[in-house]
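**Sequence, structure tokens**
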Amino acid sequence: MSQQVHDPHDKYWKAELETLPRPELEALQLKELKAEVAFAYAHSPYYKRSWDAAGVSPESLKSLADLAKFPFVDKQIERTTQGVGSFLGELCCVPEDDVVFVSSSSGSSGVPTMSPFTQNDFDEFQDVESRWFWQAGMRPNDRYIHALNFSLYVGGPDVIGAQNLGALCIWGGTLPSERLIFVLQNYQPTCIWTSPSYAWMLGNTCKKKGIDPKTDLSIKRIFVAGEMGGSISSTRKAIEDLWGAELFDFYGLSDIFGACAAQCEAHDGLHIAEDHILVETVDPSTGELLKPGEQGELCYTTLRKKARPLIRFRSGDIGHVNLEPCSCGRTHARIYVDGRKDDMFIVSAVNVFPSDIENVVRGIPELTGEYEIRIFDENYTTRYEVRVEKTPDTELDRDEVAARTKRALKGRTGVNPVGVIVEDAGTLQGSTHKATRVIDERKKSL
């Protein structure tokens, strides 16, 4: 796709589309949805078989509400249909010759799944990335370093969205920290995209080397994805204070494309590209459709993707949807992701997400921000324990820090941890990619 020219003073990448009144936006969605469902039914062996068994067809779709009649798809269905009948599998709707790019999931929750793209799928995917970068304030005079994994990762190509916007792009990838710091010093990029945990670790590594990210580097915008931290207010503030930069959370799905949703300057939820993706909220246990604003599992339907349409894909992410126009003027819905269904644990009938604990830890000035959660069974009941680090300059002793943290955790989550273990700074290691902070020992004790 050729570079698109925009006036740097324009607020929106596509003003008419981004501010479309909801009735018009939903009319556009219904038109696209009917075409997508008809295409999937005609070209995907799985969808035809599944929908026939459920007694639905493209003719069943008269309104957006009718989508609830259709069966779900999920990761397990992706895995079991992958490679069946063809290399691309039964969910795919185009021949392999029409596919120009394939990404892969990490396989952290099972067999890695492929995500194929036609040329048009890929071009539209990158146009959405340009939209998010522009929304977050990137302009053609910016220098951008893309510090994300390029190896099969669906977020790797998102750098093309920045190039199409006109920014000077540095394809950093997963450089070692020493090399990345060298690039930050010598190329002086103004924008960077990485994970929240790595942004935190990298900034602190700079400080240990006598480099102040605020004054010695030129980063003004940090884009993060892959973890919850970017939408956790205390984590965002900690990273922003460390770098002297504004942080924007991006949200993507390897099953659909790179960043499917992103924060604007209001930092109140993440706008989802509703011209490409329809979002529903369903009960995690029953699959029952919930009203906008109610917390449940976020479920996505592609509206334009042709290589592999996803109709009612259960993401495993728990959150809610806000359909009200944003203060930024955009009308596309905002999603709020509270955590992964698999990560949530229940203590004394209370749902607890690791993101709740991170919010507390990153908001206590006597703590470094690093943490580890241990979940275990005790007397047939789930319990949790948290390890944290105290800052070297705090005047509080370990017991006082532990007590303060424990009170804050009870206030945030509603349930006390069994204990808070306070370590010296540097005991818990940060991460260069997605941080592993939860140790679940419940299976071992069964």
